[in-house]
Amino acid sequence: MAVFAAACMFLVPPQAAAAPRYNPAFSDYEIYSLGDYKPQPVKKPGLLKPSPRNAINAEGFGGFFVGITADKFEPDQIILSSRYKYHKLTSSLGTSFHSTEKGSVSTFESSVNWVGKWAEWAITVPTHDWELSAPRTFGGYADSNTGLGNMKIGMKATYLPDKSYYRFAYGAVTTVTTGNPDGMLPAGSKNSDELKLFGCVTTSETDRATGNLELGTVIDSEGEDDRFLYRMGLSYEATKHVSVIGEIAGEVLGGDDKDTLDMILGIRLAPGEKFTLEFAWYRNLRTYRNYGWDDQLQAGYSLRW
Length: 305
Description:
It is a single chain. By secondary structure, the chain is mainly β. It is built from two helices and 16 strands. The chain has helices at about 1-10, 135-140; strands at about 55, 60-65, 75-90, 95, 100-115, 120-135, 140-150, 150-155, 165-175, 195-205, 210-220, 225-240, 240-250, 260-270, 275-285, 290-305. The protein has a twelve-stranded antiparallel beta barrel.
């Protein structure tokens, strides 16, 4: 009997060896393949973050109202910009007009900027409308005219890398006599070509403040108006859509007090990501212009495509 019981124990499988039970949690499964996975590079944020201050300046480049900055736009896009400027003529080479003399200048500038991978390329075309009655200062000069001003064509290299808190850029601007330059002299045009060579450094002062310094030289084709120029500016991001900008812009022509110095205060508004409005006031602090002015008003826009 004992032998029979032992035999039965070998013939009947133990409970641990029973067939596995159905578990619904593992009834479905998927196999994932890593063959098509491509890691996406993480784009590092730039030192100078985009803000409403980023728009086109008077020479067609990214910058403040006058100074050129080292700010970068996204490559492979076109930026259109226009500005309207108005000032009253009040002096000549630092000497004020007589009380009975007067004049004014209205200027409409249009710029097209192509942003490449390593540089900006820009062209700016101004149109002037002026009138002047200053017979005692200019010996019987009383006239008015409307026409094309001197065209500007330039390049700004933007490939230089960010440093700890600053970025450099450099470039050149050629001013070409177009239209009737002699007829646009009261509007600030000249009857000679010019080449401007410049460098600028833009710094991140705080999360909201950005500083800029531009230095350059202007070479005149006739060798009479060669000069050194400087522009210093500061931008403060008041809100996500508003930037307040202040600038000092000066030019030095061979000493002997032959220099100009302007202060510019203005605001830029960015209601959308690709559209910027701007308003600025210029105050002349020191002048050696043939046709000088005290105050100038400016309004304009920039549109990115």
